[in-house]
Amino acid sequence: MTAVLKPLPPREAIAALRRRRQTLAPTFAWQDVYAAEHAAMFTVAKSAGYDILTDILAGLETALKDGGTLRDFTRDLTPILQQKGWWGRKAVVDPETGEPVLAQLGSPRRLQTIFDVNMRVSYAAGHWSQFQRTKAARPYLRYVAILDERTRPEHAARHNLCLPVDHPYWKTWAPPCGWNCRCTLQSLSERDVERMRSQLKFTPPPDEYREWTNKRTGEVRSVPVGIDPGWDYNPGEAGHLATLQKLEAKYDRRGQGLLFGELPKEWPKGPETPEAAEELASEIDRAQREWTDSLDEDKLDAIAFYKAEGHRLANRLLRDGWYGLNGEEDDAEIEAAKEMTADLHRALKTAAFPRTVTTFRGVDADTAEQFAKLEPGDLFLDKGFYSSSLYEPIAQAFGDFVVETRVPKGAHAVALVHYIPDVNHVEYEVLLDAGYRFRVIEKTEDRLVLEVITGREDEA
């Protein structure tokens, strides 16, 4: 299988932003909602008295989902805010004092700040979810600063600092660490750390502190030098934890995981013996018999076509189009393959896999090289039908590099049992419909662990 990489919306970042929609908090000054409180609610300073928070939040969600730019965000939002009167400098009443003050409401610069802060915090929450999910395989975080004249000296001093994911240092020094901070965190495996050891630093620089008084609340805080007041917390962790708390009641402990992509606590292991694999395949076959009985002759022919030799041509056409042809196919063969592929897609679209399973796929060196380019947290789209085995030893007969795949209950997939002459074995195949997205969970030298993301491309 050729891995077709396609940029996809950052689901964890979008989810973190959407959780804040549940608590919209109009405020007068940014100090009214401080530090980690921002992660659990959505607010904009000087928004009190104006019905604008929903509009701004919708604009941010659109930007995250569609890859929109600041220019798009400003262009679409400006006329809405102007119509609602939230624009320019105006006299507004401070609810704390009851006194009128001249305040800057909407402006291109305000929208730039709103866009920058919320996008960075949303991405930080999404990244922290990934860090927590993949820390078994990538247990370290590296602080990455952009080393130019705009970077704060304290941030530059922490460039290449490497500490465990759960180190308490990240509770304070986790980007963004201030207004317009461009620093990020990068997850590393043990192997990465060994390879980069000469560049990395494993002891944090000593912190200096300054006292800062919140003029709105009177609270006095000690803030590390180099971190702006209001940013002395971990935006990613706070957003991640706030999301987890709100989703806790929705956790499906039967194996579906948290709504925004968190892995379930346990995934089933693959069968350890041929007899266990046969028993599992038989159980799935019985569960999907009603679906099989509902198929018409065209759909049954399409499955038979795929199980024979049709999978090669079908997937070349789906993944690469005309470029996937080798020139040996005649027009009739191509048209027949297209028709069979369409029938197979229609058949699988009505299937719902009866249980959550872990499957395995052995791949050749060329495909393994493509998979090796992926990193934990990456998303990719497979335009073709995805085939894997319930029994790992059979998968290993096709290649030393194994792709372990976590297929959720309800996926548009079917279990097929058939004999494969190439490896002289009965194959207990799980065939997943074309157009599914996958998330990389773990990666080692000889294995990649994937999670099937519920919903195909045409269902997004």
TrEMBL record:
Per UniProt, residues of the Phage head morphogenesis domain are: 56-185
InterPro entries in the record, alphabetically? Answer: ADP-ribosyltransferase, Phage_head_morphogenesis_dom
Q: Where is the ADP ribosyltransferase domain?
A: 289-443
* Domain of life assignment: Bacteria
| Entry's Gene Ontology cellular component terms | extracellular region
- One Pfam assignment: ADPrib_exo_Tox
Q: Which PROSITE patterns match?
A: TR_MART
User: What name does UniProt use for this protein?
Assistant: SPP1 gp7 family putative phage head morphogenesis protein
